[in-house]
Structure formats: C-alpha cells, structure tokens
UniProtKB/TrEMBL annotation:
It is a multi-pass membrane protein. It is found in: Cell outer membrane. It comes from the Bacteria. Residues 625-719 form the TonB-dependent receptor plug domain. PROSITE patterns: TONB_DEPENDENT_REC_3. It comes from Spirosoma agri. Keywords: Cell outer membrane, Membrane, Receptor, Signal, Transmembrane, Transmembrane beta strand, Transport. The keyword Signal applies. This is TonB-dependent receptor plug domain-containing protein. One of its GO terms (cellular component) is cell outer membrane. One of its GO terms (molecular function) is siderophore uptake transmembrane transporter activity. Its main location: membrane. Belongs to the TonB-dependent receptor family.
Length: 826
C-alpha cells in the first residue's frame, strides 16, 4: 500500500503544477487522511472475489450434461491467487423461482472443472446458471455470475422454450439518469436514458422533452441498445417530462428527476482524449467560504489511483486525470463536497489493451466426416509475445447449437465489465470486439446508465466496518445451530460430535463446542459425492432438550436480481433435428456404459478369511486393549476412569476431569512423558479426550515402548488410541436417529467426469452407430506453455456442417482472453 500512496502523491503534485488556479492539495487535510485510511482498511477487511463459468453451449435437452469450468479470480487485482476452494453453481428455474440443482466444484489454483447432469424431470424453459463462492455472499447477489440457459424436453413440439421473462410488449421501462447523479437549476447537464421492454430487451426509442409550460426543450433518440443522452439546462421552478413513442405509436410521459436548487454537477469526457480523462465540475452555490474545497477521488477495484482538491472559489473547474495511472477496467470517480459528503459519481472504462490474443490454427482448411482435427492454440499478449495461459475450449455443431448472439458474454467482458456492475448488460461482448468502431463511445454511454454499488461510502467512512458474515472456504463446511425444541437459545456452549462417513467407508471423527448462542461450524472438510453426516450434541439428560439444524439442509432462497434477456430460439426444423440427434447420442452413451459392465460367473474361492484392517490404525497388534461395554463403563465419567487399573503399566492418578495418565517407563532426563492420545487415527490433547462420552467408545488400545515407535518422537511416552463406535467403517449411523442427534446425507464435491469424445482411429463396437453429437469436444484444463503453445485433437462427427470452436482463459497475472473459430466439415 505504501507504493500506491506514493503514486497518489505524485499525481497530486502534477495536477497542482498543471492547474495552479483551479487546484490545491493540502498535505495536512484531515478528511483526506481519514478517507485514504478508511478506504484502505475497508478493502483489506472486505476484499472481493469474482467468478466466471464457461459452459460448452447455451441450449440442452433434459438428460444431457452441462460441461463447465469455473474461474475464481481475485476481484481487486484479477490475479489467479484467490483463497476460496469451493465454487457453488446453482441451476435456477426462473418460472418457479427455485434452485433445481446445486453442485459444489473443487477449485484448484482458482480453476474448478465439473459438470451438471440434467434430470429428465425438468420442465422446458429458460433457466439461470448462477456461480459464486461462500465469501461472495457477503456482497449483493447482483455480483454473482449469472448466465441464462435454454433447456428443452424430448416431447417439445414448439419452436422455442418457455421464457420466464417473456410477456406482452406493453409500456416501455425508460429511465432518465443525470450524469453524476443530479440536476441543478441553472447548470447545464447531460441526461442519459435507457429503454427496455417488458422482456428486458433494449428498445430503440424516439421522443422529446417538455417543460411545465409545454415548451419543447430537446428531442431524444436512442443510439445504441435503447440508450442515448441529451443536454438539459434546468430553469428555476420548472419540471420536465419526456414523451417517448411506444411500439404502437402512442406517446407515453415519463417524469424527469426534479432539479436541486443548489449543488454541483460532474461531466466526464473519457472519449475525445487518449491521454487524460477530463472531468468538468460546475456549481451554482452562492454563499461559499473562499477556502472551501471539494475532493475528487478516482479508484479502481479498491485501489485509490488519483485525488484532486478543487476550490469552490470559481463556478467551474476542469480536472485532468492521466489514464496511464489507472489499471484496466472500470474506474469510479466520486466527488465529495465542501462538507465531505459524496454528492456525485461517474463510472469510466480504462482500456489498456491487456487482454490476451488466442489464435486457433487447424491443421486442414476443411475436414471429412469422422476425420481427425489437430488444433494448435497460441496465446500472446498485445505485443505479440507468448504468455502461458490456462484455457477451456468447447467445439459444437453450429447447426444443432445455435448461439444467442455473437456479442454474448465472455470471460473478458465479465471480468472487465459485468462483474463490476449491477443490472442486465445486453450484448456485453460488443464493447470488446474491435470490429465495432464506436464501441468506446457506446461503452461510455453504458456506464452513464448502469448501476455500481460494490460499497457505500457511508460504510467506508463509518467508525466500524461491516463485519464479514460468510467466511472464505478452503474446503467444505458444516454450519448450523443448536437450540431448544421451542427454537430458543440454550444460553451456553454445547459439546458436539461430528461423524462424516464417505462412500469409500472412510470416516472423519470431529469434536467441538458451539458458541454461547448455539452456533457451530466445521470447516475445511474434504469429501466427494453424497456423504452421510451425523451430528450429536451433549447437554442435559439424554440430550432431550437439543434440536440441531444444519444450514446445508435448508432450501436455498432465490433472489433474482437480474435476468439477462435470452432471445435464443429454434426454428421448427432445427428443434426437431436437435432433439432427434441428442436422443441418439444419449442412447450411444447408455450403450457404452452397458458395454463397460462385466458379469462374472460364480466361482468358489478357498482361502483363509481375510481380516480387514481398520483404516484408523497404523499399528499392528497393540500391547493391551480395553473393550468398552455396559459393565465396565457403568458409573464412569471419562475414558481414563474406565481404563484405570485394567492395563498393566498404565497408571491413572486422580479422577473425573482431573485425572492424569502415565505409561510406566516413559520418561527422560526432564521427567515423565505424557502419552500421545489418538482419536480414530487423529492426534488429540488430553482435554479433548476427556470430553468424549464413554458410551461412544468401542475400545482403547495401548502401545508401549517399541510398539509406539511407529508414531515417531510423538510416541515417546507411549500411545493411547481411542477407537469410537461411530468411527468404525462398519458402524451403521442410521441407528443414531435419536434425540439430540442429526443424521443427514449431504453432497460433497461433484466428482469430475471425463468428457466422452470418440476416437475413430481405433475401432470400437459403438462406432457402428450414427454420430451426430451437439458438443464434439470439451477440454476444461488446457495449459499453454512458456512459448504460448498447446495442441489438442478430436474427431468430427457424421454431420456435414460447421463446427464452432470457442476458447476462453486467463493468465496467472489476470489477463483474460477469448477466441472463436469455425471448422468446415464437408
């Protein structure tokens, strides 16, 4: 942070020398010091994460699989160095407003490949794919990754899927947004507007603005995706109404925001000059302290880039902000008035041309059916130098998989634009396609109409920063609460035992306490697929006064903050072809699975019975064992009470919670050595062992001398190994459905399946079937080397068509890239 502060100071000095009359930097400005300190603290305590999910296509048939790769990115730097290791992906039914499916993907080095199998029970319609981390839940859901998908059924006969956002094309929604946020009487201001129909799609509009006297003040015409702007100089005592022509030709009135009597406006020119951002400030305040100043702060993703102090002595001023000082992406300009209140804001986009170029080079100009494709991928920076990049790539039949539009979202548009804005951004790829010569002008217009609220300045400048409620997950979590049957708090801590039983018969045994309010959490867990979890609380007699709830069992709430307009439609012949070919491919997949099943004939094996070794023990036969039963545990409070006097050479002194234990002969020059306690294979301290109920223990093994050497120096004092009933891989957890316990089956990480792509250079029985796959190839983890090179290969299908190839990826330093290509199959 010291480097950033130094750079800010340098910029301020430069501004002062450049505009001695208009600007003044006060080095001992208390507000400026507080503002910088609080903003730094806020961003350190509340850093940002971003998520992007690349899917193989936009339309699916029930029974198919959505192939995906998640990217978790540091939201402040865009580096691939985030801490979160769990990515949640929800499939939301927009009609029912319910989460139909959820998967948890394991993120390694910020990349989370996976898949989502679509059940046959899903209804046709428009669905939303939503991706986020647990930590991102501390911020508005508007910053979650979202993408609309079309899901069809094999019995569909229509030409398009039902859309949850469809409706009659009735009254347009037109918003009028003064630049900087407000209209001021007697001060000329630009007013941007945006028009969308009831489906959320932009609408070209025309109209005019009248004042209270019904005088025509200015005309208005949208220039791009329903957006445009006009200039207005509000008169004293006048209100303004815009009349916009609807689709049926009628004019509809829309009230413009009322003008404030006094204030300041901010107009930004980020288009005409390639070197500087020009910020024009105007005010109409009459009673002004000659020494009063305003503060203009420019920041990008939590990094303060430049600050200017602007005196109020003159009615107008211009600030020039060098673009070279800004990182690439969206910058926020905030103006604080002479009372240090934020009064005006404006977003601008800084283009540094720091995206990577991805070249897709096929080995042939065209291909035949079932022909091998060799594709060379080259990744370079803007200077043409190679750069190592991690990519995901999908190849689809363009005829069977129509694209929403060529300007759809990509990792580039999401990372640099959409992830920092609220609301729907239509055709975000438009602004990053060099073929659109007007893209920077239209992007500047977009930022005049789009919302941005990653934080509120009131939170930044408050005495306390809002606490983070949802923690960063480096593994899976189990969180919940223990309450009384009447849902009231118990008022003190409760001891909990967790048993996580995996499908491979391995188990984790955990213990811990709730806080005084009954809240608990077990973190950094690692299990895959459906797993059985048992939680038991110990409090009071027979635990009758405990009710355990688990957050992971709660039905997730759905708050749909933005639904991108989804105009994806099939023609009737396209829909029939897509359904037919997809059903054929699903049958091929089923046949392949059947071919992989091997039926073994009955055989008789004569051998000694194999005693399965307990995975919790790394030792062989212990020196002594105490089996816990109703007889020797009756009336005993702790494990040490039970083993006291039952094992030769094991000396227990004291009783109850004050008991201590020593194995004879375990000593060195410093005196006796305490034994190592191991609970179900995990080392524990004596305090933790004393909290284990004797009714939960199966047996205790004791290792002495050389037997304990397997534990190294930790076993110098001998080893006392406690093996619980629940920790055994053969124990039936369903027996535990009792008061004070919770038994549930929870999903773990989604197991990663390999994408099936037939290779026709080797003959297989299933190759006799026709091949009309929609997705021909999916590769989620392609890594180009230091020379920026990688090569992949796959085979074409039986269709004479065009194959659409799309590659997306990012470098370790956060430079994103996207590329499209087309392969002809003749």
């Amino acid at each position: 942070m010291h480097r950033i502060v130094h750079r800010i100071s340098t910029v301020l000095v430069g501004l002062t020398l450049m505009s001695l009359v208009a600007f003044r930097f006060v080095s001992d400005d208390d507000f400026l010091k507080r503002l910088l300190a609080r903003f730094q603290d806020y961003n350190q305590q509340r850093p940002v994460e971003k998520v992007y999910v690349h899917t193989d296509r936009d339309a699916y048939l029930t029974g198919e699989t959505i192939w995906m790769k998640g990217y978790i990115i540091n939201g402040n730097t865009h580096y691939i160095d985030t801490i979160s290791r769990v990515l949640y992906v929800d499939l939301i039914d927009l009609t029912a407003r319910r989460v139909r499916q959820r998967v948890q993907l394991r993120a390694t080095n910020s990349f989370a490949p996976g898949q989502l199998a679509l059940p046959d029970s899903l209804a046709s319609g428009t669905y939303m794919l939503q991706g986020y981390t647990n930590y991102m839940r501390n911020f508005p859901e508007a910053y979650f990754f979202t993408k609309t998908l079309t899901i069809l059924r094999a019995d569909d006969t229509g030409t398009t899927a039902k859309s949850a956002v469809s409706g009659k094309q009735n009254r347009l929604d037109v918003q009028f947004l003064p630049e900087g946020g407000q209209l001021i009487e007697g001060v000329e201001t630009r007013v941007a507007f945006k028009a969308v129909n009831s489906s959320g799609q932009s609408q070209t509009v025309q109209g005019f603005v009248l004042n209270t006297r019904n005088d025509t003040i200015v005309g208005l015409t949208s220039t791009h995706l329903g957006m445009g702007f006009f200039t207005l100089n509000p008169e004293v005592g006048q209100r303004y109404t815009a009349f916009v022509r609807q689709a049926d030709g009628t004019l509809t009135p829309y009230q413009l925001p009322a003008a404030n009597v006094q204030g300041v406006t901010m107009q930004v020119d980020n288009v005409s000059n390639n070197v500087n951002i020009r910020v024009y400030l105007r005010h109409n305040k009459t009673s002004v302290d000659p020494a009063a100043t305003m503060t203009l702060l420019a920041q990008t993703r939590g990094q303060v880039v430049q600050i200017a102090k602007v005196p109020l002595a003159k009615k107008g001023a211009m600030v020039q902000l060098p673009k070279a000082e800004f990182p690439e992406g969206i910058a926020q300009l905030t103006l604080f008035d002479e009372t240090n209140k934020p009064v005006s804001e404006r977003l601008v986009f800084i283009n540094k041309n720091q995206q990577i170029n991805i070249a897709l080079s096929p080995d042939k100009p065209s291909y035949k059916n079932r022909d091998k494709v060799e594709l060379t991928i080259t990744t370079t920076n803007a200077e043409g130098k190679p750069v190592a990049t991690n990519l995901s790539l999908a190849t689809v039949d363009a005829r069977l998989a129509p694209e929403v539009d060529s300007n759809s979202a990509s990792i580039v548009s999401h990372l640099l634009l959409s992830s920092d804005l609220t609301g729907v951004i239509e055709q975000p790829g438009y602004y990053f396609d060099p073929s659109h010569k007007d893209r920077w002008q239209q992007l500047d217009l977009l930022l005049m109409t789009q919302g941005w609220r990653r934080f509120a300045w009131s939170d930044v400048l408050a005495d306390s920063i809002p606490r983070v409620k949802y923690h960063v997950e480096r593994g899976l979590s189990l969180t919940g609460r223990v309450v009384r049957p009447n849902q009231k708090s118990i008022g003190s801590k409760v001891k909990l035992t967790f048993v996580v039983s995996r499908q491979d018969s391995t188990r984790d045994f955990l213990t811990g306490d709730t806080d005084d309010f009954g809240n608990f959490g077990a973190y950094d867990l690692d299990f895959t697929d459906t797993t059985t979890v048992l939680i038991q609380g110990v409090k009071g007699k027979a635990n009758r006064d405990l009710v355990i709830t688990l957050d992971q069992l709660l039905t997730p709430t759905v708050t749909i903050t933005r639904v991108p307009y989804n105009p994806l439609e099939f023609r009737r012949d396209e829909l029939a072809e897509f359904i037919k070919r997809t059903k054929e491919y699903q049958e091929i997949e089923r046949q392949i699975r059947r071919n992989g099943e091997v039926l073994l004939q009955s055989v008789t094996v004569k051998a000694k019975k194999y005693q399965e070794r307990d995975s919790r023990t790394i030792y062989g036969t212990p020196d002594a064992t105490v089996k816990f039963d109703q007889m020797n545990t009756a009336g005993r409070l702790t494990i040490l009470d039970v083993i006291q006097g039952r094992i030769a050479g094991v000396q227990v002194t004291g009783n109850g919670m004050n008991a201590r234990v020593q194995i004879r002969g375990a000593a060195n020059f410093s005196g006796p050595i305490e034994p190592l306690f191991v609970l179900d294979g995990m080392p524990m301290d004596l305090q933790g062992i004393m909290g284990i109920s004797v009714q939960d223990v199966d047996r205790v093994d004791v290792l002495k001398g050389a037997s304990a050497a397997i534990y190294g120096s930790r076993g110098g004092g001998g080893v006392i190994s406690i093996l619980t009933k629940r920790g055994s891989p053969n124990y039936d957890l369903t027996k535990e459905a009792a008061l004070g316990t919770l038994l549930a089956k929870l999903p773990g990480y989604a197991p990663i399946r390999e994408f099936y792509a037939p290779r026709y250079d080797t003959k297989k029985p299933e190759h006799v079937r026709p091949d009309y796959r929609t997705t021909l190839y999916w590769a989620p983890l392609i890594q180009t080397n230091a020379d920026g090179k990688a090569t992949i290969s796959f085979f074409t299908s039986d269709a004479k068509t065009e194959l659409r190839v799309r590659a997306e990826g990012i470098t370790m330093s956060g430079m994103p890239g996207m590329s499209r290509g087309v392969l002809r199959v003749e």
